[in-house]
């Protein structure tokens, strides 16, 4: 691509915007190296990547590209036998963790096959991550848990220190030595425990002098009684250092074996971050993927220049390459002609870089092998070239290198010299490009170019609209309509005397006057047609509004009708249940009579009553059966599964399947607090409305998810806000699942993450209490939480 043209089209500003959206140094570096591509297949793939990234962000959120560092130099050094520093291991662990989280996040995103395929090659070293987490606390501190030997050495050092302090404390508090001391304190000099002795009493306190105060009045003496213990501590310090070096050497040797895998991980993280940045930029610009065509034409629907604020930009519909290959744009200065040129050129560069375009659906663009733009006043002082000479030098270069698959953009073609000669040159240049069938857009003030566009095939006029009443441009591009010179009208509006304006018209030739009159008539007709079209559009919108209103009323009436029918069915079922309950009371009374009268007579009466009851029940059962038949909400059972919702017709109630016995074709059903075994024939599957089904499905998913909740969550490497959100969501799930105690792994570091999470736990509604981890649980690097 022509670098000068890319610069004047402000492509570098788009690149900078893309870089700002990247999260890692890998991604930023890759964004800064983006270039327009010339292969249709490559461009199509890059556009699809951006679309996948956009979909992921909108559906699931940004890909978790957290802490990621350029660790391959460290690993390379380790592979050559070098020993890495603790801070380097921490960066390695962070980057490995980022790799793992990216792979897990993208794993099930079937709608993003390109990104999914890319992340499949990420190398995971979970065990090594845990080794580093257990061994290294901070950039300078190795954990006691790094090895049993290191723990033993440090424990011995701690015990010896206590013994020394105890011994020295007894010395400084004794009556024998306290009078010789400057202060009754124990301090340290050169990593050894000492006491401050007055200089004149040096001989009274036997020991080794390690330091003195600035005035020389105080000597810091190590008493003979603790010299041997201090020596032991020094020996242990040497052993501690040797053990730390051994641990770091072992870790270095282990990671050094994976140099090629780590290098590949860096490249994949960079690519994923770069693709994610493209998706973020697309959403920020409210952009979408354009269609790619093979016919060398472009069609932009409501194209918005990406560098103009959305509240100020005026969308343009621009098309070129089908009915005409050359577009001549006329209109007033600051009317939007140059913005139109830059929009077209920048859109072409962005699309061929795999970036989405801020435009509407239906936009189509082709692949250009080169894009040339001659825009702006670039007078060269060093070469002593005039504005015209500077532009002409560039135009000569364009004409030498242009091909039929190029895009050429001229701003004020032929300007900067005699108008007649400039117009003639402009027409000749456009004609040359037209014969090459090159897609060309040129802006101009020359009337000769308007005439050329009106009289030449495959050349079309366009103009930027100007409101003569407000004396300001509207920035709308009107293709097919040449721009009218508004000099006289503007002068008249500004108060120039009418006799001067009339005199000026006498100096114009008749052809020019006729052309201006024609353009005025065209402009008036266009405005009239546009006003009528806007009126028709308003009538259509009002008609559509009324139609929507009627449809809404009809929907409400249908809902009311369904509600009335549903209430009638419920009332009928209530009557049936009441009848059954009355029957049971009657039978109970008859049984009581049985104990008081002759058994034969009462049995007869009972039988008569049973017949009467049966008749009553049959009557209501028929009503119930008719209601059930009319309802479309149930269907016969073919097979059942635990958790299914069923309708128990004999009770007129809904229940849930607890368990099934396929051999007996029976199911244990729960209705409220009651459970009973019922045959399949007594049950109906309850069909739920779509919204309910969806909800039920979601509930089921949530239940399964709750059952899978782990008793610990690892938020190391996250920023505080992300960690708070993760922990808050995790505590909600833990509470629902019934877990009573969980562990939050946050590490130590700068304590920001730990303290921030503690603030959250203090106020959380599900937290009963919390505490720091103890030895064996993770120590200061974890917090144990009790759930209410």
From TrEMBL:
Coiled coil region boundaries: 125-163, 512-610
Superkingdom assignment: Bacteria
InterPro entries given in the database record: DNA_mismatch_repair_MutS_C, DNA_mismatch_repair_MutS_core, DNA_mismatch_repair_MutS_sf, MSSS, MutS, MutS2, P-loop_NTPase, Smr_dom
Pfam family, any one: Smr
CDD domains: ABC_MutS2, ATP-synt_Fo_b
Limits of the Smr domain: 713-788
EC assignment: 3.1.-.-, 3.6.4.-
Top enzyme class: hydrolase
Residues engaged in binding ATP: 331-338
Keyword line: ATP-binding, Coiled coil, DNA-binding, Endonuclease, Hydrolase, Nuclease, Nucleotide-binding, RNA-binding, rRNA-binding
Function, in words: Acts as a ribosome collision sensor, splitting the ribosome into its 2 subunits. Detects stalled/collided 70S ribosomes which it binds and splits by an ATP-hydrolysis driven conformational change. Acts upstream of the ribosome quality control system (RQC), a ribosome-associated complex that mediates the extraction of incompletely synthesized nascent chains from stalled ribosomes and their subsequent degradation. Probably generates substrates for RQC.
Summary of subunit composition and partner proteins: Homodimer. Binds to stalled ribosomes, contacting rRNA.
Family according to the record: Belongs to the DNA mismatch repair MutS family. MutS2 subfamily.
Protein name (database record): Endonuclease MutS2
Source organism phylogeny: Bacteria, Bacillati, Bacillota, Clostridia, Peptostreptococcales
């Amino acid at each position: 691509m022509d670098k000068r043209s890319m610069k004047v089209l402000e492509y570098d500003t788009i690149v900078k915007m893309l870089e700002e959206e990247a999260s890692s140094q890998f991604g930023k570096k890759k964004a800064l190296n983006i270039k327009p591509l010339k292969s249709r297949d490559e461009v199509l793939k890059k556009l699809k990547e951006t679309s996948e990234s956009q979909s992921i962000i909108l559906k699931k959120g940004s890909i978790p590209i957290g802490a990621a560092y350029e660790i391959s130099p460290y690993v390379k050094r380790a592979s050559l036998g070098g020993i890495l520093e603790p801070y380097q291991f921490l960066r390695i662990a962070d980057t490995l963790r980022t790799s793992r989280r990216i792979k897990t996040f993208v794993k099930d995103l079937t709608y993003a096959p390109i990104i999914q395929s890319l992340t499949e090659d990420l190398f995971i070293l979970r065990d090594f991550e845990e080794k580093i987490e257990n061994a290294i606390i901070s950039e300078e501190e190795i954990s006691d848990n790094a090895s049993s030997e290191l723990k033993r050495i440090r424990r011995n050092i701690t015990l010896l220190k206590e013994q020394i302090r105890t011994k020295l404390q007894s010395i400084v508090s004794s009556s024998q030595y306290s009078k010789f001391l400057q202060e009754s304190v124990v301090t340290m000099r050169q990593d050894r425990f000492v006491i401050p002795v007055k200089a004149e009493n040096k001989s009274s306190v036997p020991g080794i002098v390690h330091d003195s105060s600035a005035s020389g009045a105080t000597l810091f003496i190590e008493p003979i009684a603790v010299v041997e213990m201090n020596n032991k501590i020094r020996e242990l310090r040497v052993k501690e250092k040797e053990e730390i070096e051994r641990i770091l050497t072992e870790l270095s040797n282990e990671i050094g074996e994976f140099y090629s895998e780590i290098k590949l991980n860096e490249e994949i993280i960079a690519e994923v971050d770069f693709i994610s940045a493209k998706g973020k930029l697309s959403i920020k610009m409210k952009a979408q993927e354009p269609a790619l065509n093979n016919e060398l034409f472009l069609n932009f629907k409501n194209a918005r220049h990406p560098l103009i604020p959305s509240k100020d930009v005026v969308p343009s519909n621009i098309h070129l390459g089908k009915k005409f290959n050359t577009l001549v744009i006329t209109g007033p200065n600051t009317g939007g002609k140059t913005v139109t040129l830059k929009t077209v050129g920048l859109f072409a560069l962005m699309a061929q870089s795999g970036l989405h375009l801020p435009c509407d659906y239906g936009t189509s663009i082709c692949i250009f092998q080169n894009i040339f733009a001659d825009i702006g006043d670039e007078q060269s002082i060093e070469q002593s070239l005039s504005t015209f000479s500077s532009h002409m030098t560039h135009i000569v270069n364009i004409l030498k290198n242009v091909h039929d698959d190029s895009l050429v953009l001229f701003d004020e073609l032929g300007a900067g010299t005699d108008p007649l000669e400039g117009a003639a040159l402009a027409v000749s240049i456009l004609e040359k490009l037209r014969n090459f069938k090159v897609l060309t857009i040129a802006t101009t003030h020359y009337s000769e170019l308007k005439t050329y566009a009106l009289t030449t095939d495959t050349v079309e006029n366009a103009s930027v609209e100007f409101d003569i009443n407000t004396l300001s441009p509207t920035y709308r591009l009107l293709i097919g309509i040449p721009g009218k010179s508004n000099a006289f009208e503007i002068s008249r509006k500004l108060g120039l005397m009418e006799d001067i304006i009339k005199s000026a018209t006498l100096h114009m030739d008749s052809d020019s006057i006729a052309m201006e009159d024609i353009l005025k008539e065209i402009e008036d007709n266009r405005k009239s047609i546009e006003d009528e079209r806007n009126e028709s559009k308003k009538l259509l919108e009002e008609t559509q509004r009324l139609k929507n209103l009627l449809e809404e009323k009809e929907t409400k009436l249908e809902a009311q009708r369904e509600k009335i029918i549903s209430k009638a069915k419920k009332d009928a079922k209530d009557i049936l249940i009441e009848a059954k309950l009355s029957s049971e009371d009657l039978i109970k009374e008859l049984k009581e009579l049985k104990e008081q009268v002759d058994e034969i007579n009462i049995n007869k009466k009972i039988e008569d009553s049973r017949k009467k009851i049966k008749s009553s029940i049959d009557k209501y059962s028929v009503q119930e059966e008719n209601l059930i038949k009319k309802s479309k909400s149930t269907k016969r059972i073919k097979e059942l599964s635990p958790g299914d919702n069923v309708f128990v017709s004999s009770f007129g109630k809904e229940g849930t399947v607890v368990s099934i016995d396929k051999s007996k074709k029976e199911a244990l059903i729960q209705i409220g607090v009651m459970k009973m075994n019922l045959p399949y024939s007594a049950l109906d599957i309850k069909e739920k409305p779509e919204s309910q089904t969806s909800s039920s499905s979601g509930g089921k998913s949530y239940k399964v998810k709750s059952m899978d909740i782990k008793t610990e969550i690892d938020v190391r490497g996250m920023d505080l806000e992300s960690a708070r959100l993760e922990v808050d969501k995790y505590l909600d799930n833990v509470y629902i699942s019934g877990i009573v105690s969980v562990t939050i792994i946050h590490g130590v570091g700068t304590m920001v993450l730990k303290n921030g999470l503690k603030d959250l736990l203090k106020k959380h509604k599900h937290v009963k209490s919390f505490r720091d981890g103890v030895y064996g649980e993770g120590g200061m690097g974890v917090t144990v939480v009790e759930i209410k």
